[in-house]
Amino acid sequence: VKISRLELLLATIFHNLNKRLPVAQHIDTDKSISLLLSFLVGAYDRQQTGRLTVFAIKIALATLCTGKLMDKLRYAFSQVSNSSGTMEWDKFSDYLQQVLALATAVFEGPTFGYTETALEQCFQKDQQVNLNAFLDVMLADPCPPCLMWLPLLHRIASVENVYHPVVCDACQVRSFTGFRYKCQRCTNYQLCAQCFWRGRTSSGHSNEHEMKEYSSYKSPGRQLAHSIHKSLRCVPVPNRSTHPIFPERPERPLDLANIVPITPASRRRFSEDLKDWTSQILPGQFPVTNGSAMDDEHKLIARYSAKLSGRTQYPFVLPKDRTTSMDENLNEKTLITRLEEENGEMMREMEMLKQQQELENTDEQLNGLRERKAQLEEKMRVMQQTRRQLMQQLEVLMLELNQSKGGSMGAIPESLIGIGSRVSTAFRDRAMQRASSVPAAQLQGDLLHAADDITNNMSTLLRELGQ
User: Fold this and answer.
1) Are 113 and 103 in contact (CB under 8 A)?
2) CA of residue 443 relative to chain centroid, distance
3) 227-233 average pLDDT score
4) Which of 91, 164, 196, 387 is the Cys-Cys partner for 181 at CB 3.0 to 4.6 Å?
5) pLDDT, mean of residues 205-230
């Protein structure tokens, strides 16, 4: 599985979790997805291939999620067992590798890393292991050494919100959460988990003293009542199993893929008629006719199936042979298949209509763009015509200015002469007549005015093109 698909899976999980939680308990989904994704990639993608196995993702999510350890182990056994309910050695080896990879990812590889001896710590290779034997070993006290961290992880998760209204004798905090440790030698000497793990002590207590771990708090009155109850118990309780006994063979899961839900109207009609129907089929009240007891049983089944399918009328007399019922089942399956085909055809038609609508919208947008383009081109032609006329006027004014200043002011600069020559070359239009009697000051003003007009028209053209 690619890492992108794993990220999508984690996003779905965390977003659905937020939908179930109250608003005050919502989690930061982006941060949670990033942290968990980085941890899984670091644990299972050591070679940086960008892919993870589906089995590794299943085992990791099942191990890290909130839940009972027994339920997680039952799920793990379903992944490593065959159809007869017996564990397969190769699959269990793969499971142990994936579980211990989680401990290795937090730098506990030297203690809890995968080795060949880790398998033998759990089961013998030729041993036939069913679900009960698997749970007996995994939930035993002590459990296999390579998995000692697994029950501890679940105990820590289960007590992180447990409140103890007692004073820690080391740090003197008045109350704390988590584990509570009580000395078996010192009188009423109790420590919080932080002080116990860091070795903090006070008074005459020593780290060598035996400590008892508590994951819950009981008031002194309840402790006294519990002690009296234990002392008055006459018959010793035999050693009970750490888990309920499960069947030897795995239960066959229900296949709900082909279940057809009834319509709401049929469901209401079924609930209204249920009371009358049940009163008719109670033991001793069902009318027994000339048919045998087997016919009555088949009649009950027929009535019940008719109610479930939503039919208001159903036969009261069962056919003598089973061929009719088989034909009915075949007809129902055929009807279901035909309805599924019609449903698929309708979905395909809806998709085609959606695509056609999108194409029509695209055509409308293209037509609008073409019209806009034509308008801009027309404006550009008008602006070019105006520019051509202004440039012609500018050329005439420059020539007149040059003639009027011929002897006194000298020749026009080369840059201005070049402008006139380029205008003549570009437009090839000399129809306009030059006026030799116009004063020089007026010619200069006309020249500046024409230059301003050219600038304004060019600015307008650029704005139009930009829109």
Assistant:
1) yes
2) 78
3) 60
4) 196
5) 74
Closest CA to 145 of 98, 96, 106, 215: 96
Would the pLDDT of 278 be above 80?
A: no
Question: Which strands sit side by side in the sheet containing 180-183, from one edge to the other?
Answer: 190-192, 180-183, 211-214
Contact 39, 121 (CB under 8 A): no
**In this prediction, what percent of the chain has a pLDDT beyond 70?**
67
Provide the CATH number for the domain formed by 158-230 in this structure: 3.30.60.90
Backbone angles phi, psi at 51, to 5 degrees: -140, 150
Enter the tokens of residue 50.
Answer: 């960008």
**Residues 6+ away with beta carbon under 8 Å from 299:** 291, 316, 317, 318
DSSP summary character for residue 87: B
C-alpha 149: how far from its chain's center? Answer: 29
Predicted TM-score (pTM) of this structure: 0.50
Radius of gyration of the chain (CA): 45
Determine which helix (DSSP H) or strand (DSSP E) holds 284, and give its type and residue range: none
Q: Give the tokens for residue 382.
A: 């008008």
Question: Coil, strand or helix: which one is 262?
Answer: coil
Intervals of CATH 1.10.238.10 along the chain:
3-151
Long-range pairs for 445-454: beta carbons < 8 A, 24 or more residues apart? 446/393, 446/397, 447/394, 447/397, 447/398, 447/401, 450/390, 450/393, 450/394, 450/397, 451/394, 453/390, 454/387, 454/390, 454/391, 454/394
Please spell the DSSP secondary structure of 300-359, one letter per residue.
HHHHHHHHHHT-S---SS--SSSHHHHHHHHHHHHHHHHHHHHHHHHHHHHHHHHHHHHH
